């Protein structure tokens, strides 16, 4: 069993309105030393695969296909093998 | 300047309907070896602070106060010092 941690962020050229709103809210709460806020998505996905390479290929495929908007977003991921009994 | 990477997830006892929907969609796309999907949020926040300890304290405070719903969600974070000129 493999665990993939997938981090989805906006591409650098894309505006992140949610991040801007959160930054403004933090400033209003007096956290004025916050310079920038980027809000993205985070997925933890467990999957069966015969080896790490197969798992990686599958993750890259379905992330592009389903998890992200390829025009606006990009992703990175970390993959590790876990014991099947692990929760 | 510090960079905080903050990962927000549901507490274990809380249902994650979005994760379930994504899992079903992956199964329909024939990614049937996906066992579980958890969808959370991911923030990258840059802030000025006099030292790492001050930055950590601030991040813990404002995450509880603004970024998460403390009844349903929990968070972890990684903090690193970055050069101010770094993009």
Automatic annotation (TrEMBL), chains A, B:
Chain ranges passing through the membrane: none
Keyword Transferase: no
Domain of life of the source: Bacteria
Listed EC numbers: 6.3.5.3
Catalytic activity: N(2)-formyl-N(1)-(5-phospho-beta-D-ribosyl)glycinamide + L-glutamine + ATP + H2O = 2-formamido-N(1)-(5-O-phospho-beta-D-ribosyl)acetamidine + L-glutamate + ADP + phosphate + H(+)
Subcellular location: Cytoplasm
Pathway this chain belongs to: Purine metabolism; IMP biosynthesis via de novo pathway; 5-amino-1-(5-phospho-D-ribosyl)imidazole from N(2)-formyl-N(1)-(5-phospho-D-ribosyl)glycinamide: step 1/2
Chief location: cytoplasm
Molecular functions (GO terms): ATP binding; phosphoribosylformylglycinamidine synthase activity
One GO BP annotation of this record: 'de novo' IMP biosynthetic process
CC terms in the record's Gene Ontology section: cytoplasm
UniProtKB keywords: ATP-binding, Cytoplasm, Ligase, Nucleotide-binding, Purine biosynthesis
Function summary: Part of the phosphoribosylformylglycinamidine synthase complex involved in the purines biosynthetic pathway. Catalyzes the ATP-dependent conversion of formylglycinamide ribonucleotide (FGAR) and glutamine to yield formylglycinamidine ribonucleotide (FGAM) and glutamate. The FGAM synthase complex is composed of three subunits. PurQ produces an ammonia molecule by converting glutamine to glutamate. PurL transfers the ammonia molecule to FGAR to form FGAM in an ATP-dependent manner.
Family stated for the protein in its record: Belongs to the PurS family.
Quaternary structure annotation from Swiss-Prot or TrEMBL: Part of the FGAM synthase complex composed of 1 PurL, 1 PurQ and 2 PurS subunits.
Protein name: Phosphoribosylformylglycinamidine synthase subunit PurS
